[in-house]
Input
Amino acid sequence: MLQQTLKLFALDLGSVGNPTIPSAVSGTEPTVKIESMISAILGTITIVASVALLIMFAMGGIEYITAGGDEKQTASAKRTTTSAVLGLIVVVASMTIATIVLKIFGIDIKALPWYGV
Output
């Protein structure tokens, strides 16, 4: 079984399939393009990071508002907000790097969620 799977990947690196589950419609093995997999993974990571950014930014803002002049709470709120902004910078930079790397390898980037934005 493992050898058959390795042979499948060695012969066709452009698609991924499960050799044990045939497609009910066509009778052939279901395949997924690598581009679609990468797009789904990067899209999911981007969405999760964006939601985390919004939550952290809101938590920092609420903490700052409710600090009531306490220096310790104000500093903590500023750290949280700064971390959220740095996280945004990291996400945007990673999206840019991923786009450049995918273009270099010739992977269709039109399927990526941020393409054309």
